[in-house]
Every structure is written in structure tokens, then in C-alpha cells.
Amino acid sequence: MTLNNGVVMPQAGLGTFLIPKEHFERTIITAYDMGYRLFDTAWRYHNEADIASALKKHGINRQDVFITTKLHIDSLYRGGYKEGLKKITNIPCRTIEEAVLDSFKNLETDYIDLFLIHFPWPMYTKMWKVLEKFYKEGRIRAIGVSNCLQPHIDALCDVAEVVPAVNQFEISPLNTQEANVQYCHSKGIAPEAMSTFSHHRSPEPRPEIINHPVLMQIGSAHGKSTVQVVLRWMLQRGIIVIPKTWDESKLLENISIFDFTLSPEEMQQISALDQGVFLNYNPYPAQRGLPKKYQAWEGFSDPKNYPAWYFNRPKWMRRLLGQRVFDNEPAPKR
Ligand SMILES: NC(=O)c1ccc[n+]([C@@H]2O[C@H](COP(=O)([O-])OP(=O)(O)OC[C@H]3O[C@@H](n4cnc5c(N)ncnc54)[C@H](OP(=O)(O)O)[C@@H]3O)[C@@H](O)[C@H]2O)c1
């Protein structure tokens, strides 16, 4: 896929979050041998250095792989960042610039292909300015964001000199994110899917997707698995995919998606499964720091868009934190 600045990025790659240490090197090398060239890591995954060492040990040229990493707010504070009331305990330990350089050091590289801001925290525009500096110096080939909705992108573009090249967020047949995908495309931003198959806080893939009868039926018509059908459905929507696995047969399965095409009817059938619910990374609560006009975005006014845990916080606490309180919100789960 050609990004909005001309950089070419593989449209399918390997996510590396939670690949066990003992399987890490083998997984990277096996994936490379199978044809994977895109590796998605992050400072927060604590495996940037493992990618560098695996590539180095096996004599793989830096130019032969495309590495994405991400800037995390935890990297700026001793013991990690605590939101809201706990902010008194946020003791800075690095500048944003130093945090970016930390990823360079971990990855043992003098350039990074794609650097994302991991989440739209209140200071994400400040982080963006630092990424822009590295980008202009030619040390990062493309910069982007993650977990951003339309208002986060709009607020960023108000202060940005560089339009993000990529937005990585949760997309699956049960959460098609059509509006956000279309919005990204309209701005020239490449959408990238994460956590399509993962189950929140569980190592098992989501059975409601893997065993979905519609996906299984489409898969059997093409001689493909449900996972391959879902990945293909995203490729055909112009989305970059980075499924994570350390199982050899699944690695091969996940990249064997370029030899079949879904018909427009099949594409439509899959898109119709949408329930609009985030399973893992719901970005709707991320409104602090957004200018008022963007907080007024209609998507923020619907309690259905918020995760259940959001309503477990007492209303007084949310008011204090500047978070939204609705008249018609669901009862907290005790
Ligand atoms: N920007 C962010 O905030 C963010 C957040 C989360 C993830 N990410 C990135 O996105 C990548 C992908 O997301 P993710 O790791 O959360 O979830 P994912 O890759 O969508 O799903 C991982 C799950 O799917 C299973 N799986 C993979 N291929 C399969 C296949 N062919 N058949 C059956 N099951 C299969 C894996 O099982 P096994 O592990 O057992 O093989 C695992 O349980 C991450 O690795 C990370 O790089 C970014």
C-alpha cells in the first residue's frame, strides 16, 4: 500500500503483542522466511529489542523489513502514567524526544519506517510535534496515530504540519468501523486493523468470529478459513492487517490471503455482521484535552459507544475527571 507521503508499506504483516519471549525469535524468522516483511511492535510491548536481535542474528538486512513502533505515555513517567486523580504520582522520567530515541536504541536502527502515537492521550498533539521533528529530519519515514476517532484526527490536523499516514484501530466483522475507515480514507490516512481476533484479557481467539456460521460458509466456498476470509475482507476494504500468532501453521494461513477474491455480495454479507461494539480498545472515553468543539462530536453523545467499565466509575468521579455523564446510561455492574 502506498501511504500519503509515497512510502510503500506492506498491506499484511505480523502483530507482535504478547508473543512469548521463548518463541519470539523463531516466530520472527519463520514469518520472514514465509514472506512477512511488516512487523508491528511498540515500546509498550517490551519486545522492540527482541525484533532487533532476531533480525541481526539471522543476517536480515534492515532495508528488507518494514518496522512499525509506537510511542506510549507510560514511557514518559516512572512506573507508568496514571490517569486522572492519580496524576500526583506521575513522576516524569523522560522527555518525549528521549522516549522516541529509546525506541531507536531498542530497535538498533538509525531509521524507523512507521512511528505511531499509541493512543490519543491529552498530550498526543505535543507528542505529534516531536514525531514531526524526527520525520522532517528523515529519521522516521512515516508517522501516524492509533485508536483515533474522527474528532481526534480533526483536532490533530488543526495543529499538525504533517497529516497522519496511518491510523491503527480495532476493526473486525463484529465492529466494522465503517465510518472511521471511510473518514480515514477521505483524509488520505491508511486504516490499519488491530485486535480483530483477540479476546480481551484471554489468550484464546474470539470464538464468535472464528466460529461464525456466515464466515465459515463463505470460507468453505473459497476453501479458506474464517480468519483468512476476515483478513481478505479487510484487505479489499483498503485496510492494513497485522494478525498476531506464534503458531507456524497460523502464520502461513494468515499470509495466504492473496490468491482469492471475495465477491461484492460476500463483502456486504460480512459487513452486515457489524454490532458496533469494541471488544478490546474502545477510544470513545478519550476526550480529555480535546477542544470543546470536538468534544461536541455526535458519536461522543451516545452511551452505547462506551465500554461497560466506564459506567462503573461513580458519576461524581467522572464529573471531577471532566468525563461524560449521561441521563440514560446503563446501571453500573456490581
Ligand atoms: N495500537 C494498539 O493499541 C494495539 C492494541 C492491540 C494490538 N495492537 C497490534 O495489533 C496486533 C494484532 O492485534 P492482537 O494481537 O490484539 O489481536 P489479533 O492478532 O487480531 O488476534 C490474536 C488472536 O488471534 C489468534 N489467531 C491468529 N491467527 C489465527 C488463525 N489463523 N487461526 C486462529 N486463530 C488465530 C491468536 O491465536 P494464537 O496466539 O494462539 O496463535 C490470538 O488468540 C498486535 O499483535 C499488535 O501488534 C495494537
Keywords:
334 residues, alpha/beta, TIM Barrel, eight-stranded parallel sheet, two-stranded antiparallel sheet, 36% helix, 14% strand, globular, binds NADP nicotinamide-adenine-dinucleotide phosphate
Bound ions, cofactors and other small molecules, one mention each: NADP nicotinamide-adenine-dinucleotide phosphate
Percent range for β-strand residues? 5-15%
The CATH topology of the domain at 14-206 and 239-245 is TIM Barrel
Give the CATH superfamily of the domain at 14-206 and 239-245: NADP-dependent oxidoreductase domain
Q: How confident overall, as mean pLDDT?
A: 94
Shape: globular
Following the backbone from N to C, one meets helices and strands in this order, namely: EHEHEEEHEHEHEHEEEHHHEHHHH
Number of E-state strands: 12
> Which CATH first-tier class of the domain at 14-206 and 239-245 would you pick?
Alpha Beta
Count of separate DSSP helical elements: 13
- Report, as a whole number of angstroms, the end-to-end distance: 46 Å
With strands numbered from the N-terminus, the spatial order across the biggest sheet is: 1-2-3-6-7-8-9-12
Walk me through what this model shows:
- This protein has 334 residues and is an alpha/beta fold.
- It has a domain at 14-206 and 239-245: TIM Barrel (Alpha-Beta Barrel).
- Helices cover 36% and strands 14% of the residues.
- The protein is built from 13 helices and twelve strands.
- The chain has helices spanning 21-34, 48-57, 96-107, 124-136, 150-159, 178-186, 207-210, 213-222, 226-236, 248-255, 264-271, 292-295, 315-320; strands at residues 14-15, 38-40, 66-71, 77-78, 91-92, 112-117, 140-146, 166-170, 190-194, 198-199, 202-205, 240-241.
- The strands form three sheets. The protein has an eight-stranded parallel β-sheet. The protein has a two-stranded antiparallel ribbon with strand order 4-5.
- Helix 6 links the parallel strand 8 and strand 9 (190-194).
- The longest helix is centred in the N-terminal third of the chain and has 14 residues, at 21-34.
- The mean pLDDT is 94.
